Amino acid sequence: MNARKLIPLLLTLFLSFGSIPATATPHADAEPAGKKLMAFVIDDFGNNMQGTDEILSMPVPLTVAVMPFLPSTKQDAELAHQKGHDVLVHMPMEPMKGKRSWLGPGAITADLSDDEIRSRVEKAIDDVPHAIGMNNHMGSKITADERIMRIIMKVVKERGLIYLDSKTTDKSVAAKIAAEMGVPHAVNQIFLDDVYSVPHITKQMELVCKRIHNHPLCIAIGHVGPPGKKTASVLRQYIPRIQKEAEFVTISKLIQQTAH
């Protein structure tokens, strides 16, 4: 190829690479540099829940999602940070079904004004020490609402945080709006303990292993609380097996390493 043809081609390549946002979403098929990546996110910290000690003492980096305004919110966030785990604000959001009493204090509900939503999100972030991001607690109704998610994402962006869509509904617009607004983000792929039994959690961990075998990354969510001790026990058993194929990372490191 002569120089006259080569220069426009190089210019086109340069411009196309330059247009890729630094906050791109990690996609399942995007090949990160180096080893495969495994991010476990554990929700529902903040209320002295069962399994808290067992999860926080795991010998691998995790992401700890802490609910705001609860008795052990600050204690759990501080300890998680000291142990090198990522801390997220586990933001209570109204579901399509279920009781509002399950949400906890400071929840985002669909009947709130724009100003009240912003205020609640800001206060929640301020209440959780060391938070580097946010994910939704419940929230099937809210994460499908563009008006509300734009307000939430605006605050997340202003605070320099990341967003993890827990994906409690297939109708969630969280990732789409995060991408539009330039918020670094990721999406949960597997729930570990939606059924509180060791056989079910084990079955889900097998899905995790299968996914990490076939894809460059996996994000999975478990919980402290009713399934906490069981989830911690099964997770600990699977650590050596997963480490043969993937590196355990926090969610912020996963997003950083897979953004192009």
TrEMBL record:
Source organism of the structure: Brevibacillus porteri
Matches recorded under Pfam families: Polysacc_deac_2
UniProt signal peptide: 1-24
Origin superkingdom: Bacteria
Protein name, UniProt field: Divergent polysaccharide deacetylase family protein
Keyword Signal in record: yes
Keyword list, A-Z: Signal
